[in-house]
Amino acid sequence: MNQKKLIGLVILIVGLVLLYFGFNQANSAVGEIGEAITGKYSDETMAYLIAGLIASVVGLFTVLKK
Q1: Which domain covers residue 27, as residue numbers?
Q2: Total count of domains within the chain
Q3: Is the pTM of this model over 0.90?
């Protein structure tokens, strides 16, 4: 495994961890109450979800690129 693929794998793992934290925060009691009142997720939850999605896509692309 070359260095680029290894870096891509690390980025992919970090992205998946961020997505996990984002989904956990979105489904927590506080997150659901906040969503029920405001109709949207908190800024922190959205940051985790967006950063996790971007990192996962970039990491996956880097790992799969030949």
Answers
A1: 6-64
A2: 1
A3: no
Overall size of the chain counted in residues: 66
Residue 39 neighbours by CB under 8 Å, 6+ apart: none
In a domain, 1, yes or no: no
pLDDT band at 54 (very low <50, low <70, confident <90, very high): very high
- Asked if 62 and 4 touch (Cβ cutoff 8 Å), the reply is yes
Rounded to whole angstroms, the Cα distance separating 29 from 7 reads 35
- Give the CA angle between residues 64, 13, 31 to the nearest 5°: 130
The 10 Å Cβ neighbour count of residue 29 is: 7
